[in-house]
Amino acid sequence: VQLQASGGGLVQAGGSLRLSCAASGRTLSHYGMGWLRQAPGKEREFVASISWSGGDTYYEDSVKGRFTISRDNAKNTMYLQMNSLKPEDTAVYLCAADLTNRGYYMGSFGYWGQGTLVTVSS
C-alpha cells in the first residue's frame, strides 16, 4: 500500500490548512487510518486517527477542538482539517494505516507514507 500526503504549506498563526492522504495499491476502506507528525529535532508523535467507518475518531490532546479527521472511502482518501494553527504545529505530517485494526486508536500503525510539510509562522 502506498500513502501520499498533500496540502501542506506556509500559513500564519490562526490560519487553516486541509491535508489529504491518497492511498493506492490497496483499498483501505476496512482499516483504521491516522496522521502522525514530526517536528524538527523531535520524535514522531500521534495527531489523530479514525476507524474504518469514520464513526470513531481519536485526537492528541493539543489538537482537540482545532483539528478534524475524516475519510471518504469511495475515494480511498483521508483528510485532516486544521484550524487555529499555532507555530508549535509546524512539522512534517504523515498519513498512516493500520491493517490490523488493533492499534490505530492508540496511534500505532504499520504503514505510513511520505509526509507533507506544514509551517506555521507567528
In words, what does this structure look like?
With 122 residues, the chain is an all-beta fold. Helices cover 0% and strands 50% of the residues. It has strands at 2-6, 9-12, 17-24, 32-38, 45-50, 57-59, 67-72, 77-82, 91-98, 111-112, 116-121. Strands 2, 4, 5, 6, 9, 10 and 11 form a seven-stranded mixed beta sheet that branches. Strands 1-3-8-7 form a four-stranded antiparallel beta sheet, with no helix packed on it. A hairpin with a 6-residue loop joins strand 5 and strand 6. The model has no long low-confidence stretch (mean pLDDT 95).
Record keyword descriptors for this entry.
11 strands; mainly beta; 7-stranded mixed β-sheet
Radius of gyration: 13 Å
In round numbers, the mean pLDDT is 95
- Biggest sheet: strands, sense, closure? 7 strands, mixed
Distinct helical segment count? 0
Percent of residues in beta strands: over 45%
Helix-strand category: mainly beta
Helix content: under 10%
First-residue to last-residue Cα separation: 37 Å
Overall number of strands: 11
Order of helices and strands: EEEEEEEEEEE
Choose one word for the global shape. globular
Topology diagram in text:
Blueprint lengths: L1 E5 L2 E4 L4 E8 L7 E7 L6 E6 L6 E3 L7 E6 L4 E6 L8 E8 L12 E2 L3 E6 L1
Parallel strand pairs: 2-11
Antiparallel strand pairs: 1-3, 3-8, 4-5, 4-9, 5-6, 7-8, 9-10, 9-11
